[in-house]
Amino acid sequence: MYLSIVIPAFNEARLIEGSLQSVAASIAANQRSGFTSEIIVVDNNSTDNTAELARLAGATVVFEPINQIGRARNAGAAHATGDWLLFLDADSLLTSELLTDIIRVIESGKYVGCGSTLHMDGLPWWASLTLQFWTGASILFRWAAGALVVCRRDAFQEVGGFDQDLYALDEIRLSKQLKRWGRQHGLQFTILTQHPLKTSSRKVSLYSGREIAAQIFRIFFLPKRTLQDKKHLSVWYDGRR
Q1: What percentage of the chain has pLDDT greater than the value 90?
Q2: What is the 3-state secondary structure (H, E, C) of 139-174?
Q3: What is the rounded distance in angstroms from the CA atom of residue 114 to the CA atom of residue 182?
Q4: What pLDDT score does 111 carry?
Q5: Which candidate, 155, 156, 171, 138, places its Cα nearest to that of 70?
Q6: How far apart (Å, rounded) are the C-alpha atoms in residues 69 and 232?
Q7: pTM above 0.85, yes or no
Q8: Which of 78, 106, 109, 216 is most buried, by the most CB atoms less than 10 A from its CB?
Q9: Which residues pair with 119 in a beta bridge?
Q10: Inter-residue contact 225 to 217 (CB < 8 Å)
């Protein structure tokens, strides 16, 4: 089993080293016969030294000039050589326990892919409630959070990868497509819950509750217009880090 770990990164100089260190440590803890991996960081037109830090950490760096998360993930997948793809956000920390769970899913031969529940430290009550709501929806509908998506490379290619018409929540559409592909091939898509992915809560500190609520409101009531134009997605694309 050859696992390609793809990390899209836009101006992630503060966090990319920690993320890559967590990946390296998790891989080292899961070394076994037949398991190989590669790490690809997609520099999504960063203006800081994200790419340099990634290279120094031993990652292969791919450049994607158009600032869009789905396009960056697709660019990384296009350079990947593994038969499985693991997409990880640059502000997230992979643990050896979660990687063990992912490897078990892959080796079982029963799944087209998986996602994971999330853990964020230091959330205010309203953000914690929002995360709980997302966790319930993620498990119920088997929607992967964008911070971690794992899938077979052939399935990813056949469904067309991440939808580049969308500037956010493209992971939900991909989850639906992978589930459909899986049903056609007798495979499942699941959400791992035992060891949640540790991811940053920085948006909560960078944006007010009102700003985040307004963003969620717009996505809910004007989904097509909002998700297809990044000027309406400030929480993702206004550059705050």
Answers
A1: 96
A2: HHHCCCCCCEEEEEHHHHHHHCCCCCCCCCCHHHHH
A3: 11
A4: 98
A5: 171
A6: 15
A7: yes
A8: 106
A9: 198
A10: no
Reading the block at residue 168, the tokens are 């956010």
pLDDT in tens, 20-74: 999 999 999 999 888 999 999 999 999 999 999 999 999 999 999 999 999 999 9
Q: Inform me whether the pLDDT recorded for 218 exceeds 90.
A: yes
Query: CB neighbours of 135 closer than 8 A, spacing ≥ 6?
Result: 117, 118
| Dihedral of alpha carbons 208, 212, 217, 222, sign | positive
Residue where the block lists tokens 């991909």: 174
DSSP assigned state of 49 = S
* 42 phi, psi to nearest 5 deg: -100, 110
User: What CATH fold (topology level) applies to the domain 2-201?
Assistant: Spore Coat Polysaccharide Biosynthesis Protein SpsA; Chain A (3.90.550)
Mean pLDDT of the chain: 96
Q: Domain extents for the chain?
A: 2-201
